[in-house]
Design goal:
7-stranded mixed beta sheet, 439 residues, binds pyridoxal-5'-phosphate, single chain, Aspartate Aminotransferase, domain 1, 4-stranded mixed beta sheet, 2 domains, Aspartate Aminotransferase, domain 2, alpha/beta
Amino acid sequence: MIDNNKYPEINISEKLFDIAKGLIPSQTQTLAKGVTQYVQGVAPIFAQSGKGALISDVDGNEYIDYTMGVGPLILGYSYKAVDDAIIEQLKSGITFSLPHKLEVEVAQLIKQVIPNTENVRFSKSGADATSAAVRLARAYTGKKKILCCGYHGWHDWYISVTDRNNGIPKEIENLTFTFDYNNFESVLESIDDDTAAIILEPVTFDKPKDDFLLKLRNICTEKNIVLIFDEMWTGFRIAVGGAQEFFGIKADMALFSKACANGMPISIITGKSEIMNLLEKDVFFYSTFGGEALSLAATKATINEIIDLDVINYIDYIGAKIKSGYNQIANDFGMNYTFAKGYNFRSMVVFDANSHSLMLKSILQQELLRYGILWSGFHNISFAHTAKQVEYTLDAYAACLKIVDEAYRSGSPEKYLKGKPIEPVFRKTSNFNTKPKEK
Ligand SMILES: Cc1ncc(COP(=O)(O)O)c(C=O)c1O
């Protein structure tokens, strides 16, 4: 256990940040990695390197990482088998003037491991995949409206339903509506004759209740609505075959990214051929880097490692330790306003302390930095996290939660924060853009 009690020196990070201000709007390409998600003035801002479950910042500080690139690093940083596959492919080329044979090989592998896959296409980002699926659903059904639940990427069709929707025409906003997870009534209320697709993460942190997923499956079949599983997080984590395998529910399309390639940029669209066949001609979905071979080589190596080394079970075991360990500490301290919830592969620490919640989360993040732990509220477990690192983290949680509780009890937790608190990503996230009731 590091016991020097010091916050990290972040001089080089801050210098780079000064350059980035005025040059790179919001100073990040991924909101979840940006300064608003960390305590500014205390937390590191720029990364230098990573190895296993450890990340080093530009000032040379090393941290156990519980964000893991916001999802992709399922095996850990600099994972040899994947890096070797990338290097091997690099020797013969990255992007070609013809489709590469890896496109066929990886598509075959995906068909083997992801249930209900008849066709496969590749692209680069999660938003590419969700937007292609939405377009396909509209083309297939001849209908326009989309019902969604959760985050699905930056494109117009989705961001229109958030409060950061400047630049998106109102007409687009009127085509996408949200429903509440596990609230089948809210789905029924939103469906109309023009509903083309229901897209959702099959699960985030709350388990499905009362056959929610089955009910969605049935209503979609009944009303000719395309059921799309956004498996950016569940894919290659909840089970090798994702949520369709885990819950035994068949989606019409299932979309993957993040964990597919241990950090290389790729997304995968899978589904029924009667829908995906439309990509043969009438539905346009192509991009220059869609068949880029380093990412395909990384995908093949990553999926093979996940299968061969039973990564899913390992992540479940490590994730259970940290989640239950957190809850035990909070419980022992009588801190009934905080707990960790979710599946073992990815749990989330919640503060339920009204207006203080984000402040308390910020204080916990700040204090964990003194123990060399980079944390933004989640346990994104990788194959590289060891039981020893988890035990160390739980000791650090015990030390830091004492301070958080003291801050909470003081009634003025802001006095304990040495920088700027973490900011919410969206100002409003529930009951947003639900479908207006018919008059
Ligand atoms: C569930 C889900 N869908 C879609 C996306 C968008 O993926 P990308 O950022 O790769 O476009 C994300 C990104 O975090 C996600 O978590």
